[in-house]
Design a protein that fits this description.
- This protein is of the alpha/beta class and about 350 residues long.
- The protein has a domain at about 175-225 and about 275-345.
- The chain contains twelve helices and eight strands.
- It has helices at about 30-40, 55-65, 85-90, 105-110, 115-125, 145-155, 175-200, 210-220, 285, 290-295, 300-330, 335-340; strands at about 45-50, 70-75, 95-100, 135-140, 160-165, 235, 240-245, 255-260.
- The strands form two sheets. The protein has a five-stranded parallel sheet with strand order 1-2-3-4-5, with helices on one face. A three-stranded antiparallel sheet has the order 6-7-8, with no helix packed on it.
- The protein binds iron/sulfur cluster (2 copies).
- One iron/sulfur cluster (SF4) binds near residues 247 and 291.
Length: about 350
């Protein structure tokens, strides 16, 4: 649910607010229509998104007070957490705070002082009693180092999980993508080594892409886009349009309905699906096509698409390489299924970066 198209930051990956003509800065549809739609699905997960969702805390309160959903999630840049009262925060199942890793990287891409603000917000959320899943949501770009930044965020001891998205959709600011990709793959290998080392000691690191791939390998599922976009996850824009993906606000292929017109989830399910080359790809079981938006838009062309696939395949290969040992560790009771079987519901981490 986009609560507004407005944002209080202007990060280098996405340039801040949506123009109000594309994503209005206020919600324009009837709450009652939204209530009927959400409550038609007994398993509905409501995730607040924007713009910056906390620029419209009234709407969040209104939804949480009036709409029955199985779970509530929010993705926020973390600057304005105090605009929502603790009693609402305590009702969230997952809170995703945007932070890219170490201070220099976060502040370079998101703005000076953002890193400190996000950490202060994470501490405040815990202080006021938020006990759900606190997820660091990174955007990983050229200045980012996956090993350094993920381990840094884990070592802070504030976040339960760390997830990252690659800045490979819109950004044309890369100077040396191929060189960075080589380093990224090395970093992924080191992260998987670290993960299995810690698992041997009985500690499960909350690295979402590793857990998400392991989950499919060990517990089944897969063969679908992990974020669910267009299949069983939809974004409701502030103007009431229902979109296959929350960033596809201008693309006609993504518009699948409208609040007030759609009566239930069955009318939306499987509206926009991934096709070839993904469905014949040997990695499809785990990758699921990675990202519907990137698949449809190919803003980096087919060659760029393939370059990103290389990164995905490396991640999957590395994780599958340790899966047999993870199985043994589970059987021996060194680690527990409830720590590895993650995420338990679509908490908006897309699994495949
Ligand atoms: S690795 Fe590439 S081709 Fe294969 S499923 Fe993923 S996105 Fe599609
Ligand atoms: S991973 Fe891609 S398709 Fe899925 S929600 Fe994110 S941008 Fe949309």
């Amino acid at each position: 649910m986009l609560t507004t198209g407005r944002c209080n930051l202007s990060c280098k990956y996405c340039w801040g607010s949506f123009p109000p003509a594309i994503v209005p800065w206020e919600v324009q549809y009837e709450l009652e229509d939204l209530r009927l739609l959400v409550e038609s699905d007994p398993d509905a997960v409501v995730a607040f998104y924007g713009g910056e969702p906390l620029l419209n805390p009234e709407f969040i309160r209104m939804v949480m007070d009036n709409v029955r959903a199985r779970r509530f999630v929010i993705q926020t840049n973390g600057i304005l957490v105090r605009s929502l009262e603790p009693e609402y925060w305590r009702r969230f199942d997952a809170v995703l705070l945007s932070i890219d890793g170490v201070r220099e990287v976060t502040d370079f891409y998101r703005g000076r002082g953002v890193y400190d603000s996000v950490l202060a917000s994470a501490k405040w959320l815990r202080r006021v009693g938020f006990s759900g899943d606190l997820i660091a949501r990174m955007a990983l770009s050229e200045r980012g180092d996956v090993y350094r930044d993920v381990t840094h965020l884990l070592e802070l001891g504030l976040f339960d999980h760390v997830h990252w998205q690659l800045d490979v959709v819109w950004s044309d600011g890369w100077e040396d993508f191929d060189g960075w990709a080589r380093r990224y793959k090395e970093g992924l290998s080191r992260l998987v080594d670290l993960w299995i080392d810690e698992a041997r000691r009985g500690r499960v690191l909350g690295i979402v892409p590793i857990l998400g791939v392991l989950r499919v390998r060990l517990f089944g599922g897969g063969f679908r886009l992990p974020c669910g976009a267009g299949r069983d996850a939809f974004a409701i824009s502030t103007d009431g349009r229902i979109l296959a993906c929350p960033i596809a606000v201008q693309e006609s292929w993504a518009v699948v309905g409208r609040v007030g017109w759609v009566r239930g989830p069955e009318e939306l399910r499987d509206s926009v699906l991934i096709g070839e080359p993904c469905t014949s790809c040997p990695y499809y079981r785990y990758c699921g096509g990675r990202c519907l938006y990137a698949y449809r838009e190919r803003m980096w062309g087919d060659e760029g698409f393939r370059k990103v696939c290389e990164l995905t395949r490396h991640l999957i290969d590395e994780v599958l390489g340790v899966a047999p040992e993870v199985e043994e560790l589970l059987q021996a009771g060194v680690i527990r299924r409830r720590e590895v079987d993650y995420p338990g519901f679509n908490n908006t981490t897309e699994i495949i970066p």
